[in-house]
Amino acid sequence: MEQNLSEQEVIRRQKMEELKEKGIAPFGAAFERTHRSLELRELYGEKTKEELETLDVHVKVAGRIMTKRRMGKLGFMHIQDRDGQIQIVINKGVVGEEVYEIFKASDLGDIIGIDGVVAKTDSGELSVKCMVYTHLTKALRPLPEKFHGLQDVEERFRRRYVDLIMNESSRKVAMLRPRIIRAIQHYLDGQGLIEVETPVLQPILGGAAARPFVTHHNTLDMDFYLRIATELPLKRLIVGGLEGVYEIGRLFRNEGMDTKHN
Questions:
Q1: Dihedral sign computed on CA atoms, order 116, 117, 121, 127
Q2: Less Cβ crowding at N or C end of the chain, within 10 Å?
Q3: CA nearest 117: which of 187, 58, 64?
Q4: Strand pairing partners for 128?
Q5: Whole-model pTM?
Q6: How many folded domains does the chain comprise?
Q7: How far is 90 from 113, CA to CA, in rounded Å?
Q8: What does the pLDDT look like over 103-112, one tens digit per residue?
């Protein structure tokens, strides 16, 4: 099937082929990191430039290239992992001309691994001075414009993965949600309740007045409904002797949509 590619997408695919010619896998190289960006800030953010030079701390970090600039034989970029960003400093004299050319050809959105030394720049920004540069994954599509990200609300929700890349508040929400769920579970468990899972497919509707999603069970040759409420199955468990139960589960109602619920 013919694809309608933008100029940037065509150039990125050419770069992908150039990586192959150099013997570098454009996707899927293995890399074992030792630290994430937040760990580095917590461990070394308060250290002075001189203290870090004395400590000579070697780390391995990995992330997506979010910013990039060059000043002669020095290259600077910020890579982003799940916790935030960390600056990388690349010196052509340290990594060599061939590796520096790979860095120069990299695009925003590419994922890379860096083996280097923790340092601070003259401006005081915590950084990792690159000793070994590893290309991990080629980004074939450009990121949204960095100052505005995804502005269209529908686009943000349809392409949640891009919103997570560009929007720090979206990442915080995504990482906070499971912690909230764990806190609820911990509290209810402490009250003596038992967490359960009730069937998602139900042969009859019950517990709420809402339009269901309907699907056909081929083996049983009958229609089932994605549950619109868990009330009746939970009550049956109480009848069965579990006494106190709870479930944190998805409900499916074939009705209106908005950004707060589906």
A1: positive
A2: N
A3: 58
A4: 88, 118
A5: 0.85
A6: 2
A7: 12
A8: 999 999 999 9
